[in-house]
Amino acid sequence: MVMWAGLALQLSQGRDRTLSRRAARCFDLLKSTWNGSQSRKDVKFQEFTDATPEGNLILVYDESGNRMYADPASPAAFPWPSPSVAAGGDRYDDRWFESRRYRVLTRQTSIESHPLTIQVGGQLEDNRQLLARFQAGLAAATPVLLALSAFCGYLLSRRALQPVDRLISGVRSISVRDLSARLPVHPTGDELQRFAETCNDMLARLENAVSRIHRFTADASHELRSPLSFIRTISEYALQHHTLDEETREAFKDILAESMEAGALLEDMLILARADEGRLLVTLVPVDLAELLDEVCEKTQILAGSRGQTFTYSFKTVRPVSVEGDRSTLRRLFWALLDNAVKYTPDKGRIDVEVRRTEHHVVVGIRDSGVGIPKELQPRIFERFFRADPSRGQATGTGLGLAIAKWIADAHHATISLRSAPGEGTRFEVRLGCTPAG
């Protein structure tokens, strides 16, 4: 639209300049023949109109408003505007004649003190046709231009956003377990370079802070093991004496129980601290998962039986089942899940363990009829020290068992998923990679 309006304005101004030049040539002709004979004036005027495009639209009036010169071929019915105009001025008028639009210039001038009025007209049909062709061409080219502009814009945006994509990929690859990575910095001198440098400075500070926290956790856990062991030993030794009165004996039993629970907590904290620092390595070797689960489930069955719980263990695949893993940590993974099921399942409840095999995985499902986990708390269930409303059951623990289980699963490239609802129990599912069944 702007291009069309600009072209229309240029054509209109060009037509006005053409009429002005034509009026000037007519004035020069009149001036050069002013003192000549009338016949010579008529001949020269006719030659001028014949040699001028659209020359039949030229009229000259004298000071009385009478026509001095007019081409005989000029249309008699043409609607000429009034010849009156301010002295020395120009006036432009638009006229319609035979369904065509015309532009008429009226100019007042004088020769040897004799006022004259010159009117020059020109049709605008050429301008209209040119604008119509331009508009049609523009309408036809607009979709192509829009598509081309969109494609070029897409390419430019892709090129401009490539550094942003690299920064996003770099940020996503950094986790709290490995803060040593840094974002790529390209010497472009723009805001993206400063942003990447600022992020790297922040990561360095964060890495230093997290490293101090990990060192503190590991050092505190390690240093507290000795006094807790000493307290436990003293309590066990004191309980061996039969001369203790009942009140003192109960006090030592409480001390022993608390020291054992604190020792378990410190052991779990030490495991996670070592894992965070990368000092707890998992060696993956072929492990018979069936034999390992037999051992863990046998221990769980005894624990569940002490609470009157029903425990079932079904192995729906061919033995043995070989997986790449670390036996001790895998045993800890399944014990954490089974111990959690026993703790949060009420007496007389039910716990079911099912093992099945797919083409590339072995799936271990552990389902209980316990209190369940609210949907809004499920995303946080593997967080450290998080317990899903411990007031709903009589479970005790450190709050680190599931966090350790998640770390072990990640170290074995396995997955842990859960489905749960309050009052309907919980089902954990561990999916481990294995060799196809032969």
Topology:
Elements: H1 2-32, H2 38-51, E1 58-61, E2 67-70, E3 90-97, E4 100-111, E5 114-123, H3 125-172, H4 191-239, H5 246-276, E6 285-288, H6 289-305, E7 310-316, E8 322-325, H7 327-343, E9 350-357, E10 361-368, H8 401-411, E11 415-421, E12 425-433
Parallel strand pairs: 7-9
Antiparallel strand pairs: 1-2, 1-5, 3-4, 4-5, 6-8, 9-10, 10-12, 11-12
Helix pairs in contact: 1-3, 4-5, 5-8, 6-7, 7-8
Structure description:
With 438 residues, the chain is of the alpha+beta class. 50% of the residues lie in helices and 19% in strands. It is built from 8 helices and 12 strands. The protein has helices at residues 2-32, 38-51, 125-172, 191-239, 246-276, 289-305, 327-343, 401-411, and strands at residues 58-61, 67-70, 90-97, 100-111, 114-123, 285-288, 310-316, 322-325, 350-357, 361-368, 415-421, 425-433. It is rod-shaped, with a radius of gyration of 49 Å. The mean pLDDT is 80.
Q: Any idea what the shape is?
A: rod-shaped
Q: In order across it, which strands form the biggest sheet?
A: 2-1-5-4-3
Task: Enumerate how many helices there are, as a single number.
Answer: 8
Q: Which class do the helix and strand fractions yield?
A: alpha+beta
Low-confidence stretches: none
Rounded to the nearest angstrom, the distance between the terminal CA atoms is 74 Å
Rg from alpha-carbon coordinates: 49 Å
Number of strands: 12
**What can be said about the biggest beta sheet?**
5 strands, antiparallel
Strand content: 15-25%
Helix content: 40-55%
How would you spell out the order of helices and strands? HHEEEEEHHHEHEEHEEHEE
